Amino acid sequence: MPAKIGIVATLGVSARRIPLRVAAMARRALARTEPATADALADLVREWCRELGKACEPRWIPVSAQTGLQVRTMLDLAARLCA
């Protein structure tokens, strides 16, 4: 059961992360040419970040730990594909 909860949580974060990233990138791209739109997007990004933080209770994971996980995942995938 914990694995299923983890999968659901991961899907929830992914579903929120993509539009959040797009809004943040659009805000940055429009900051000089469309400041009013960029401000509205900044408000939206802040709101979505608050909502995501409340829903997921994020915690800091050191970059070295994140990188280690990614490397182990890629090595495992390569071993499975080459076997």
Percent in helix: over 70%
Low-pLDDT parts are none
Radius of gyration: 17 Å
Name the shape in a single word. Answer: elongated
Q: What's the main sheet like?
A: none
Structure description:
By secondary structure, the chain is mainly α. 86% of the residues lie in helices and 0% in strands. The chain contains three helices and no strands. The protein has helices spanning 2-30, 35-56, 63-82. It is elongated, with a radius of gyration of 17 Å. The two termini are 30 Å apart. The model has no long low-confidence stretch (mean pLDDT 90).
List keywords for this structure.
0% strand, 83 residues
Short synopsis of the structure:
The protein is mainly alpha-helical.
Blueprint of the fold:
Elements: H1 2-30, H2 35-56, H3 63-82
Helix pairs in contact: 1-2
